[in-house]
Design brief:
alpha/beta, Rossmann fold, five-stranded parallel β-sheet, 11 helices
Length: 235
């Protein structure tokens, strides 16, 4: 997993307590996750849904800040459910919690607007921290799985002449921020690495997202990888 390090929240931080919807069709697992999250002073479980259709309705009714989503549900896939939820609640953060560690599953989740992707081996502390980070707009994914997915995207899409043409649209700093994000660094860590303010990192990311015509940081990283603009591997 990407390193879980405490971040400084943005000036206008998320509301407290965070409203979390758990979407999980296994009752015992759903109850266990709700118990873990509900034991945190800054988190409130605003509902448990066991299908995609229920998830969309409950998330909208209870104005969830974060949805902790299983990948496989009885009626639809997790990404389909995430799309339904975000259609009604665009600002919600989606954290996937899945036993599926395939590259296809990860990319499907990202295409659906995922903020984080946890495997079922994630610890209770990692789940809690992922929820908090998602509420702050940070990303969290299994870095090894993401690296493989990006490598495949890059090898199958990028051509040198296209890479140079697309790279001209971005500043050197924007590409640095993208590369460090792909390597698993959060906003504060990127800011420290580049010796700039966290707000400046977010400013660069907003410009990157606009230029790539995507909706999230993860989608931006995948799109940049497809164009051969970034290297996900740490030096």
């Amino acid at each position: 997993m990407m390193p879980l390090r405490p971040d400084k929240p943005p000036v206008a931080g998320p509301r407290v307590p965070l409203q979390i919807l758990v979407v999980q069709d296994h009752p015992l697992l759903a109850s266990a996750i709700a118990f873990i999250l509900g034991g945190e002073p800054d988190i409130k479980v605003c509902g448990i849904a066991r299908s995609g259709a229920d998830a969309a309705a409950v998330a909208f009714r209870n104005k969830a800040d974060v949805v902790l989503m299983d990948f496989n549900l009885p009626d639809v896939t997790g990404p389909s459910a995430a799309t339904m939820i975000r259609d009604r609640l665009p600002a919600v953060a989606i954290v996937f919690h899945s036993a599926d560690e395939s590259e296809t599953a990860l990319l499907d989740a990202i295409d659906a607007g995922a903020t984080a992707y946890l495997t079922k081996t994630a610890t209770a502390d990692q789940i809690v921290e992922a929820v908090r980070r998602a509420a702050r707009g940070e990303v969290l994914i299994p870095v090894e799985l993401f690296a493989k997915a990006i490598a495949r995207q890059r090898s199958s899409h990028a051509r040198e002449q296209d890479r140079d043409r697309h790279a001209a649209q971005f500043t050197h700093r924007e590409l640095e921020v993208l590369t460090l994000l792909a390597q698993g660094l959060d906003t504060v860590s990127i800011a420290r690495e580049l010796r700039i303010a966290p707000n400046t990192v977010e400013w660069h990311m907003r410009h990157v997202i606009e230029k790539l015509e995507v909706k999230s940081k993860l989608q931006a990283v995948v799109a940049a990888a497809r164009l051969g603009l970034i290297d996900f591997q740490k030096p």
